[in-house]
C-alpha cells in the first residue's frame, strides 16, 4: 500500500483500488461482505506512517501512489451498448409472449454468466424483480432460465442483497418444490449464494426453505444433493437454523451420503459437525448410525473430513457418556492418535481436548 484509506466497515485498502471497486457500484466491504454505511474514504495515517517507517529502515524509496484507473472511452462505449441491449431484454421479460420471455430470460442468463460488468448492468436495468416474478412461471424453461440468471447475478455481492430484498426467497422455494432437475439445483445454489450475507441466513431459515433443501438432499440428482448440502452447511452456521435442519430429517440423509461412493463425504461431515453442537443434532447422529461412519472418516477421510469428524465426535463424547462409550467401542482411539500426530492444527486441537478432557474425565469417574 502507498495511500491506505479506511472504509465504513473499518477495513483498510489502497485508495485507487477501493475507489475503483466503489465506482463499479459495489457497496459492500470486500473483506467483511457487509454493506458500507457510506462510501467516504478516510486516510489511514497510522498505516501510512508504518509504511513510510518501513521504507526508511529498509532503504526502500516510498512508491508513488497508484492512480485510479478510469474506464476508457472504448469501455464506456461498450457499456453503453450493453445497457441498450439489456434494457430491451428487460422490456421483453414483461411480454405476453412465452417465446419472447423464453428468449429474454435465456439471453440474460448467458450475459449474467460471463463478467461482473454484465451483472451490474443487468441489475441496474431493473431485471432482478422481473426475474423473481418469473420464478413462478408455468413454463418450465422460463422458470429454469430465470433461476439460473439470478444464480449468475448473485455472484455480485450487491446483487445478493438486491435479490433477497426483491422477496426472492419464497419463489426460490417454489422452484425447489416444482422445478425441473436443473432448476431445483440452481435454486439451491442461489439460496447458498444468498446465504453468504449474514442476515440472509436468518431470512432463508425462517422462510421455510430448509424442508425443501433437505428433500433435495435426500432425493435429488447427485449435483442437486451437493448444492443442497452446501446450502445447508451455510445455513447451519446460524445457530437458530440447526434445530430446523435436524427436525427436517437431514441427519439421516447426511449419514447416508458419508458413503465414499456418493462423493460427498466432506460436505456431509461438515454439516454434521455443525449439527453436533446442539442436543437434537447429537441425538439424531447417534440414532441414525452416524458414530461408526464418523470414526471411519477420522481413519480414512481427507484432512478436512478428519478435522470435522473429530469435531463431531468431540461434541458427542463431551455431552454424553453413552455416546462416548459408543465412540470408544467403534475403535476411535487408534485413528484419533494418528490424527493427533498428522492432522491439521484444528484437528490436533480437537483430539487433544478429546483425550485430556473427555477421557481424563472418564478416568476420574471410573
From TrEMBL:
It catalyses: S-ubiquitinyl-[E2 ubiquitin-conjugating enzyme]-L-cysteine + [acceptor protein]-L-lysine = [E2 ubiquitin-conjugating enzyme]-L-cysteine + N(6)-ubiquitinyl-[acceptor protein]-L-lysine. One of its GO terms (biological process) is protein ubiquitination. It is an enzyme of class 2 (transferase). The keyword Zinc-finger does not apply. ARM repeats lie at residues 126-168, 208-250, 249-290. PANTHER family: U BOX DOMAIN-CONTAINING (PTHR23315), U-BOX DOMAIN-CONTAINING PROTEIN 4 (PTHR23315:SF7). This is RING-type E3 ubiquitin transferase.
Amino acid at each position: 500500500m502507498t495511500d491506505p484509506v479506511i472504509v465504513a466497515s473499518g477495513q483498510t485498502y489502497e485508495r485507487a483500488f477501493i475507489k475503483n471497486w466503489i465506482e463499479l457500484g459495489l457497496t459492500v466491504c470486500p473483506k467483511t461482505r457487509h454493506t458500507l454505511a457510506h462510501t467516504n474514504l478516510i486516510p489511514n495515517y497510522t498505516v501510512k506512517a508504518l509504511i513510510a517507517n518501513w521504507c526508511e529502515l529498509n532503504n526502500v524509496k516510498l512508491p508513488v501512489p497508484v492512480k485510479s484507473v478510469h474506464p476508457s472511452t472504448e469501455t464506456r462505449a461498450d457499456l453503453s451498448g450493453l445497457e441498450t441491449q439489456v434494457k430491451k431484454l428487460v422490456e421483453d421479460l414483461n411480454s405476453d409472449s412465452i417465446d419472447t420471455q423464453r428468449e429474454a430470460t435465456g439471453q440474460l442468463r448467458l450475459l449474467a454468466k460471463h463478467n461482473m460488468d454484465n451483472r451490474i448492468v443487468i441489475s441496474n436495468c431493473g431485471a432482478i424483480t422481473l426475474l423473481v416474478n418469473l420464478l413462478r412461471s408455468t413454463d418450465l424453461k422460463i422458470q429454469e432460465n430465470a433461476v439460473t440468471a439470478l444464480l449468475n447475478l448473485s455472484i455480485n455481492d450487491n446483487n445478493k442483497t438486491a435479490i433477497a430484498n426483491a422477496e426472492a426467497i419464497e419463489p426460490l422455494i417454489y422452484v425447489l418444490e416444482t422445478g425441473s432437475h436443473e432448476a431445483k439445483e440452481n435454486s439451491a445454489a442461489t439460496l447458498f449464494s444468498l446465504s453468504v450475507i449474514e442476515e440472509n441466513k436468518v431470512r432463508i431459515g425462517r422462510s421455510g426453505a430448509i424442508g425443501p433443501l433437505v428433500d433435495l438432499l435426500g432425493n435429488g440428482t447427485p449435483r442437486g444433493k451437493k448444492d443442497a448440502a452446501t446450502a445447508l452447511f451455510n445455513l447451519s452456521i446460524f445457530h437458530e437454523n440447526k434445530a430446523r435442519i435436524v427436525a427436517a430429517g437431514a441427519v439421516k440423509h447426511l449419514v447416508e451420503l458419508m458413503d465414499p461412493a456418493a462423493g460427498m463425504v466432506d460436505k456431509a461431515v461438515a454439516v454434521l459437525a455443525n449439527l453436533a453442537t446442539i442436543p437434537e443434532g447429537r441425538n439424531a447422529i447417534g440414532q441414525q448410525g452416524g458414530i461408526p461412519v464418523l470414526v471411519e472418516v477420522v481413519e480414512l477421510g481427507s484432512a478436512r473430513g478428519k478435522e470435522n469428524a473429530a469435531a463431531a465426535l468431540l461434541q458427542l463424547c463431551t455431552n454424553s457418556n453413552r455416546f462416548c462409550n459408543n465412540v470408544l467401542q467403534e475403535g476411535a482411539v487408534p485413528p484419533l492418535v494418528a490424527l493427533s500426530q498428522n492432522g491439521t492444527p484444528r484437528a490436533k486441537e480437537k483430539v487433544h481436548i478429546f483425550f485430556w478432557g473427555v477421557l481424563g474425565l472418564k478416568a476420574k469417574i471410573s
